[in-house]
Amino acid sequence: MVRPVRVLLFATARTAVGRAELDWPVPGQGISARALADELARAYPRLRPTLRTSRLVRNGRPIDRTSVRIRPGDEFAVHPPYGGG
Asked: In the prediction, which pLDDT does 57 show?
């Protein structure tokens, strides 16, 4: 069964997609963070450059390995580098 992951997009990621949030379908056994990022990049080609430099976060915790499984019901966030001061 395919159920959604809540994808949150910030800063330039939000601009590239045109939305701050997506419900993205994933299989019941989940998908690796890398595979999910690749799917998002295929669906939103303008997002690809931003994903290369972004911090990926699952359920509020930074992902340190892209092999981490993202499962239905999880929250997956894309945090591009932020600037300012």
From this structure: 98
Neighbours of 80 (CB within 10 A): 21
Rounded Cα distance, 47 and 44, in Å: 5
* pTM of structure: 0.92
What are the Cα distances from residue 71, in Å, to 3, 6, 13, 29, 80?
A: 9, 10, 21, 7, 22
- The residues spanned by each domain of the chain are 26-63
Structure tokens at 13: 């990621």
List beta partners, residue 75: 6
What are the tens digits of pLDDT across the range 13-40? 999 999 999 999 999 999 999 999 999 9
CA 4-29-18 angle, to 5 degrees, is 30
